[in-house]
Write a structure and sequence with these properties.
By secondary structure, this protein is mainly beta. It has one helix and eight strands.
Amino acid sequence: MKCLPTVFAALVLLPVTVFGQDSTPFHKGQWAAQFQAGTAFGSLGFIKFRSPTRALVLDLRLGGAHSEELTTDSSGANRFAHLNSNAFAQVRFGWRRYSGDGTAAKVVSHYSFGALAGFNHFATRDPTGSSQTNGWTAGAFADVGGTYLLTSRFGIGALATASLSYQNSLGKSSLSGRYRDWSIGGSAASASLVATLYF
């Protein structure tokens, strides 16, 4: 476990040293499934190789939570106190460039760039009122990472992603009526661990 931070750092920095190479163990028409676990959420992605060094990437990210709070009144009965519910879905589509040191390479590096789009929902309710917000997101992303191929069909690695997006939301509150807001934001470099299955 002590070497994990070193391995993680090496895989993220790997593209700086390997991007000059133009040969990988992959081939045109090959497919792969990518499973990502990060600090904020996970994702499931699909990779379609257009050549040994270029691929299309489709990544789906889903998340959500629901919680309710009950209180006990003076008679000992349970009464509703508060509800929170949220969900989001995001799709990322882009192009990926791979680099490696030959068809027998055990380590490959890659970088990607593309567009993202998503939808989010948030609702809250308590005895004094309720509110609900629905919004959509559009933007761009870029990532850089590396993969160690344990076998020809399975690899583990690390990925650092940055994104910039615009969000527009429409909400409704029982206290203040309808409202609309927008925001521009992004992340500088969120890191994650990645497992990839090649077919």
